[in-house]
Design goal:
By secondary structure, the protein is of the alpha/beta class. It has 9 helices and 9 strands. Strand 2, helix 2 and strand 3 form a beta-alpha-beta unit. The protein is globular. It starts with a strand and ends in a 9-residue tail after the last helix.
Length: 269
């Protein structure tokens, strides 16, 4: 069966789609068959990223390793039983259609709570939660006292992950490997950064996630989107002598892929 990776939280602007396209494309470059789904049915940032990539490859004639993007199929609502949710069936049908030809299925969730996102979390073998390195975003996971250290209780998102874990346990599935990815890390050892690290470490032990470093804020990510490219494509499109920022960004991606410890994946780029 395909290993399902879900990239989700309930807050926009944390870098979910950037993480999604880079993880999916990195896996494709490592020789794995990857199918991807975008559950943000309104904005479709990941879907737009893939549209841009395919258009760029067609225009340039390049053949770059690329995951397979799929829309959720339409379902005949007349065929649904009483109380059945059409989106549940759309997601189930999409995953079932991808599984025979995929080593990995990556699902990018919207930055809000939806029924689709809730169901996707219960399907996750690996859950990646990108988080900006600030206490504003930390509130997504748990509430914290004014001292920046005392955790007063879990957030609604953490409770949703807990419910997804319970559903998986009832179905006899393996537990979710939950990784919180710290994006936009500051380069210096600022007080806020140190407090965030301590708070995440404490919360991770309490509710069961591990942390991994993500991406620093870099202009290159904004520049890549219109062509649907990733950091690993730069040399293939003729960019020589990568600058220090781009080299550092590639190392961040390498570190992230190793931290995910996905089954059968050896990071060789």
């Amino acid at each position: 069966m395909a290993h399902i990776i879900v990239v989700g939280n309930e807050k926009g602007g944390a870098g979910k789609s950037t993480v999604s396209i880079h993880v999916a494309t990195a896996l494709a470059r490592l020789g794995h068959k990857v199918g991807i789904l975008d559950l943000d049915l309104r904005q479709k940032t990941l879907g737009r990223y893939m549209d841009n990539r395919l258009a760029y490859l067609e225009k340039t004639g390049l053949d770059l390793p690329t995951p397979s993007y799929h829309e959720l199929p339409e379902i005949d609502q007349a065929a649904l039983g009483p109380g059945e949710n059409v989106n549940d069936h759309r997601l189930s049908a999409a995953v079932a259609g991808l599984e025979p030809d995929s080593d990995f299925i990556l699902i990018d969730c919207p930055g809000s709570h939806t029924r689709l996102s809730q169901v996707a979390h219960s399907l996750a073998d690996t859950l990646i939660t990108p988080l900006n390195d600030s206490f504003v975003d930390f509130d997504l996971l748990a509430h914290i006292a004014m001292d920046g250290e005392t955790i007063t209780g879990p957030s609604v998102y953490s409770e949703m992950v807990w419910n997804a874990r319970q559903l998986r346990a009832q179905a006899g599935l393996e537990p979710i490997d939950w990784i919180v990815v710290r994006n936009r890390l500051g380069a210096q050892q600022m007080v806020n950064k140190v407090k965030m690290e301590k708070a995440l470490d404490k919360l991770g032990r309490r509710i069961g996630f591990r942390t991994a470093p993500g991406f620093n804020e870099r202009v290159i990510f904004r520049e890549l989107f219109p062509r649907g490219l990733t950091l690993l494509d730069l040399r293939d499109i003729g960019v020589k002598g990568l600058n220090i920022s781009n080299i550092a960004a590639r190392q961040e991606l390498r570190d992230l892929m190793r931290a995910l410890t996905l089954p059968g994946v050896e990071v060789t780029f």
